[in-house]
User: What shape does this take?
Amino acid sequence: MTTNSIETERLFIRSTREEDGAFCLSMWLDEEMGKYLADPPRDKADEAELDFAKGIEEQEGWYPFVAELRSTGERMATCSLVPSEDGKTWDLGYCVHKNYWRQGFAAEMIKALIQEAYRRGGRSFTAAVAKENAGSNAVLRKLGFSPVKEGSFRKRGTDIVYPEYIYRLDLE
Assistant: This one.
C-alpha cells in the first residue's frame, strides 16, 4: 500500500514503487547485505521473488518503503511496516545498504517508522532478528526493544537455519 512519505533529518522515506525492485533485490539477495534475511541467495530466487515489486503500489496489508538520502536522493535502504489486524501491533522490517552501515541510519529509520505507526494507532512494535546479526540486535536494544521470544527461520532456497530473537517495544 502506498502512504505518505516520512522525512527525518537525513532521510526521505517513501512508498516503494515498481521501479525500485532492482534496488531492493540488489540488497536482499546480496550475499553480505542479505545474509541474515529470509530472502534466498540470488541464484536460488524464483520468478515470484524476482518480480516482487510488480504491482507493489496496490498490495494490501503492509507498507513497504525505500529510504533515500535527503542530501542527494540516493536510495540507501528499505524498510516496512506490517500492522496487525487490530492495528495495535506493528511489525518492522529493514535493510540498509552496506555503504551506510554503522552511521545511525537504521536507528533513524526505525524511529521514523515507529512514529508513523504510532500516529496510525500502533502501540506495540515487533521485529525478528537473527541472533548472529550483531548490528541489528544492537540497534533494536539501543531503541528500547527487548527480546521476548526466541525462534528460528530458514533462508529460502537453502538449508541455512538462523536462530532468531523476536523483539518487542511497547509504548503504552
